[in-house]
Amino acid sequence: MSALMQQKELAMSTDELLQAQVELYHHSFAFVKSLALKAATDLCIPDAIQHLGGAATLSDLAAETGIHPTKLSNLRRLMRVLTTSGVFSVTGDHAGAVYKLTRVSRLLVVDRAGGRTHLSPVVSAFVSPYPVTTLFSMREWFTDERAAAMSLFEVAHGCTLWEAAAMDGTAFNAAMAADSRFTMENLLRECGSVFETVRGSLVDVGGGHGAAAAAIARAFPHVKCTVLDLPHVVATAPTDDKLTFVGGDMFDNVPPADAVLLKWVLHDWQHEDCVKILRRCKEAIPARNVGGKVIIVDTVIGSAGSQQGIASKETEVLFDVFMMAADGVEREEHEWSKIFIEAGFTDYKITPTMGLRSIIELYP
């Protein structure tokens, strides 16, 4: 195509140019929305609205959260971002505005009675200095030859994500536990049949402090649940008489069980490492004709097809770039299939869910 033809195709009217500028700035300011959400979470604004009966004015919020009176106009600006983006809702004009929770901000309300899992720790972990500053090193990571064998996190911080988590994994462990409780409670309601066929034992590989395994043990008391993770992780796990914790390395050995669970584990690793992990899992389970299987809870990009909304599609690919920090990958089905075959599995079944992750059943 000639340069002249290209110029004609790219030619835009003044209105189109100005609209393109709006879209460009919208993409550039996307980080502000994340940080506004983090601020609202840190200030416990969702809890304040809930405590105030589900509706609150700016003055109510300031009094409930300890925000200084001189910051009231700035609080209005913060809430304007969060109502525009759907985190909260608002009725009334600026003078008498009343703020309420939406289905998004309800997930951030701490249930003092302990009956419902909240996801505030996940926001705190995702929108924090470590992951955010890591992404500032992408240009160097893509172009510097010295970074070829390093993760993006290493380039930015001089150590791996796992080394940093080993030094202080409090926020990370809290986020993973909150996600596991929330995800498994909902998946067990939606796809409980996947776990009903587990005969007697299940090992949760890379299961952290056992939140996912505990949810399974409560739903299926006949299943004996074991949690495998690195020794320093299980050493700080809370006591649970329904779970057995084992310190070890999933690359070396997985304890024998009728089923193996890998929830949000394989997306942390490159292809070759995933194959190694799944080979250890295959060694741990019995043959398919006696009920053995591996259950993977992870993202399968595009698995819901045309049923996916734009928020789901964009979140999947944003998460994929986010995972580059740890050298992780969010995968499409054809990428998963190659891993399964190479690890020695002959069959698999993917069950999409309404959330970000699918359930994959692997059979030897």
Automatic annotation (TrEMBL):
> What GO biological process terms does the UniProt entry carry, in alphabetical order?
melatonin biosynthetic process; methylation
Using the record's annotation, list all stretches that form the O-methyltransferase C-terminal domain: 139-345
Sorted alphabetically, which Gene3D superfamilies does this protein's record hold? Vaccinia Virus protein VP39, Winged helix-like DNA-binding domain superfamily/Winged helix DNA-binding domain
Domain of life per record: Eukaryota
Which InterPro entries does UniProt cross-reference here? COMT-like, COMT_C, COMT_dimerisation, SAM-dependent_MTases_sf, WH-like_DNA-bd_sf, WH_DNA-bd_sf
Limits of the O-methyltransferase dimerisation domain: 26-110
Q: What is its EC number?
A: 2.1.1.4
Picking any one GO molecular function of the record gives: O-methyltransferase activity
Catalytic activities? N-acetylserotonin + S-adenosyl-L-methionine = melatonin + S-adenosyl-L-homocysteine + H(+)
Q: What UniProt keywords apply to this chain's record, in alphabetical order?
A: Melatonin biosynthesis, Methyltransferase, S-adenosyl-L-methionine, Transferase
Q: Could you name the active-site residues?
A: H267 (proton acceptor)
- Name the pathway: Aromatic compound metabolism; melatonin biosynthesis; melatonin from serotonin: step 1/2
Q: What does this protein do?
A: Methyltransferase which catalyzes the transfer of a methyl group onto N-acetylserotonin, producing melatonin (N-acetyl-5-methoxytryptamine).
Similarity-based family: Belongs to the class I-like SAM-binding methyltransferase superfamily. Cation-independent O-methyltransferase family.
Assembly with partners or alone? Homodimer.
What is this protein called in UniProt? Answer: acetylserotonin O-methyltransferase
Q: From which organism does this entry originate?
A: Triticum aestivum
